[in-house]
């Protein structure tokens, strides 16, 4: 197997962590058991550009159980867990091309390996793999049956591709499925982002002013958890409706230029570029901690910060860089502006990723079953598949719910009965 990882000898620790995560992923385990029997991906090649974590490893196990020939590369240079990569190669037959801290050249070399795998199905976390195929590999346009996209950022890019007429195969926006975004983005990002910030800085959040840039599902989760730890939470937004929702949820809302003046900690979760810029750095308090939990490392304008810094001290703590400004203030940037929850912690809890990756697995099966029936568009998974995932998760939690009576079903499907 032509893998490219840090050290195969890390596999023992990685296997232990993969199996530990697996115990909190009962929905995916149930799907894996069925896939072992039915082999829905027999004879297919799959290339996956995802965060190489213990939870992702259990998704890879599920795909291979379904008969797929799977190659995994990293979707972020700082999110790879090297022991997990080693165990996937040694213990589970998955070819991995990912090394934590890989430079930009290596990152794109690993993407090239995923493309050279000649996939029939791709999985993306940010749409880098699809983008590379569309820009440079027309020979794969007819070969790829479908692609799955895991992130808000990636879906935004893919919808832009569809609008511009450059999308050459169907894509399922896994991120837009409720069993993904309502749980992964809100509960997963909310908890794991705080975990990363606290691990990196050892900051006490109680009493601090914590600024959340963006009030989408990730921002809602992060703001809620920060408030739960006693922080004074401020939200910044560019969308009137989301800003209004934040106000009605009890948060202060103001422009970033005002929020930066009072912030002790800032975290961006927008998916957009240069949310924190030079004018914001110029007014920050001494010692302000700046981080990002959006997908790419573009939300914090580090080029501008480098320009105005009189001195930069790297790794004052692991994953913490200090930028000293000419007036004596210091700004601390976590994880080089990359995903703080994965670079400084271990990403989402396994029980959350159980939902997301169950959705990924079933979306892949849906795409393969509907080969040739899907247009070159961005799709959302059918509602009945979401209901199936949610029902299985509730069952694993020993939670029961009511069912509609025949009378209630009839009432909901009729119009004759009024007040």
Describe this structure in words.
The protein is α/β, with parallel strands linked by helices and 419 residues long. The chain has 2 domains: 220 residues, 3-Layer(aba) Sandwich (Rossmann fold), CATH 3.40.50.1480; 160 residues, Rossmann fold, CATH 3.40.50.720. 46% of the residues lie in helices and 16% in strands. An 8-stranded mixed beta sheet has the order 9-8-7-10-11-14-13-12, with helices on both faces. Strands 3-2-1-4-5-6-15 form a 7-stranded parallel beta sheet, sandwiched between helices. The longest helix is centred in the middle third of the chain and has 24 residues. The chain starts with 10 loop residues before the first helix and ends in a 7-residue tail after the last helix. The mean pLDDT is 95. May play a key role in the regulation of the intracellular concentration of adenosylhomocysteine. Pfam families: AdoHcyase, AdoHcyase_NAD. GO terms for molecular function: adenosylhomocysteinase activity. Its EC number is 3.13.2.1. Its main location: cytoplasm.
